[in-house]
Design brief:
CATH topology of the largest domain: Umud Fragment, subunit A
Shape: elongated
Distance between the termini: 25 Å
Number of strands: 12
Order of helices and strands: HHHEEEEEEEEEEEE
CATH class of the largest domain: Mainly Beta
Largest sheet: 10 strands, mixed
Number of helices: 3
CATH architecture of the largest domain: Ribbon
Mean pLDDT: 85
CATH superfamily of the largest domain: Umud Fragment, subunit A
Helix content: 10-25%
Number of domains: 2
Structural class: alpha+beta
């Protein structure tokens, strides 16, 4: 990363981008950045160009295609079903650059649309923090079954009197109920999301 100093306005823009990524799991649009800075979208874009030139961000096509440059990468290790559970896959695919604000251990590409009402779309990449326990309402990746029949799914985690409910965020899908004694394991919880436009 460049050691070239940022102006106060460029530092403000970078801080707003980082805050938006932490809060919303996605960067702001130029218009949103401009509004937060009290300037026009065009002026906000000018600051983004300066940040890119100095090596702090990269920009692509699309309204939200702003990526913070960091030395941090996560392994993208396969897909997780946001739909009916699918066979768990743990194949290293690539090293994925991520913002330094993301506290995750690996990434998975989402397949399916059972979480679309929570803004998680087919093809998105979710950042996963490995955990052995989760709180009610956490979005988690869970393994169901064992051996060759082990399947992975992305759902909301809801403990319920000794059983676990894995709830989708799409009315077209039904809850998955895990009863006591069923083979079940938490892989991790979702701590961020990346979408390519």
């Amino acid at each position: 990363m460049s050691t070239e100093a940022l102006s106060k306005r460029q530092a403000d823009a970078l801080r707003i981008i980082r805050r938006a990524i932490r809060r919303d799991s996605m960067p702001p649009t130029r218009a949103e950045l401009g509004e937060a800075m009290g300037v026009s979208a065009q002026t906000a874009h000018f600051h983004l160009v300066a940040l890119q030139r100095k090596g702090y961000i990269k920009m692509g096509d699309g309204a939200r295609n702003i990526f913070e440059v960091s030395d941090k990468t996560l392994p993208l290790i396969g897909q997780v079903a946001a739909g009916m559970p699918t066979l768990a896959i743990e194949d290293y695919i690539e090293a994925l650059p991520v913002p330094s604000t993301v506290e995750a251990d690996f990434a998975l590409r989402v397949s399916g649309d059972s979480m679309i009402d929570s803004g998680v779309l087919d093809g998105d990449v979710v950042y996963i923090q490995q955990v052995t326990e989760a709180n009610a309402g956490d979005m988690v990746v869970a393994l169901i079954g064992e051996g060759e029949q082990c399947e992975a799914t992305l759902k909301y985690f809801l403990p319920d009197n000794g059983r676990i409910i894995l709830r989708p965020a799409n009315a077209a899908f039904v809850d998955i109920v895990v009863n006591e004694g069923d083979n079940f394991a938490l892989v991790g919880k979702v701590v961020g999301l990346h979408r390519s436009f």
